[in-house]
């Protein structure tokens, strides 16, 4: 499978971010804790250079805790402030204000020396589609101030949100980058739902996921679907279809429906806590 998805509004969004970066003190970048590097847009580092940086390992409840910790250390080693969060349930959100102040302490100190007091920190919230930016902002603001949806591309324009007298946030649309140099990155993004399912072959995608799970999380499919983990990935998918009574006319197994069930179970944490990439991959 070849992965690419870069609709026109993303070019416009990137331009808008470049125009607004001069107003910004801090770039808050949300990544998916299951794929912390693959879910980072490489263009953000260029956009955010000379700015304070905070990486939020979002959806940390869906990833293995030991790998969340290892990833936090990895990014701290590269000079970022890091926090594990779970925006949907509010985990880690209370710590954000303190972390923002800490990440921007040099700027706040510079302002103080110049006699500028109480100017709010202006933070731009960035991340790829479906990484949970809107849910995070809503959790932080304590009210539904941005649209959210469990599909990529819900936020289309920019919006400023005043959290309190200390912090203002600029929400931005999720943007990917024009070309994935490494198709493994595209595959991982497809697994977590950051590329539109409509342009993917879901059966092929599910078989790729089956291959990964059999290698790294042996027994997880057997426990979830009460199946034997067959050598052949397609046979595995057929077993899931049988276990979940996915049938089409004439009692044929509906492997496409089974593929959607498997992907949905993975994306929503029903298979358990799963991390898809590890710091040693990027050592």
Describe the structure.
One of its GO terms (molecular function) is GTP binding. Required for a late step of 50S ribosomal subunit assembly. Has GTPase activity. Belongs to the TRAFAC class YlqF/YawG GTPase family. MTG1 subfamily. Helix 8 packs across helix 10, helix 8 packs across helix 11 and helix 10 packs across helix 11. About 2% of the residues have low confidence. The chain is elongated and about 75 Å long. The chain starts with 7 loop residues before the first helix and ends in a 16-residue tail after the last helix. The chain is an alpha/beta fold. The strands form 2 sheets. A 6-stranded mixed β-sheet has the order 3-2-1-4-6-5, with helices on both faces. It has a two-stranded antiparallel ribbon with strand order 7-8. It is 40% helix and 13% strand. The protein has 2 domains: 164 residues, Rossmann fold (3-Layer(aba) Sandwich), CATH 3.40.50; 82 residues, Orthogonal Bundle (Conserved Hypothetical Protein Ylqf, Chain: A, domain 2).
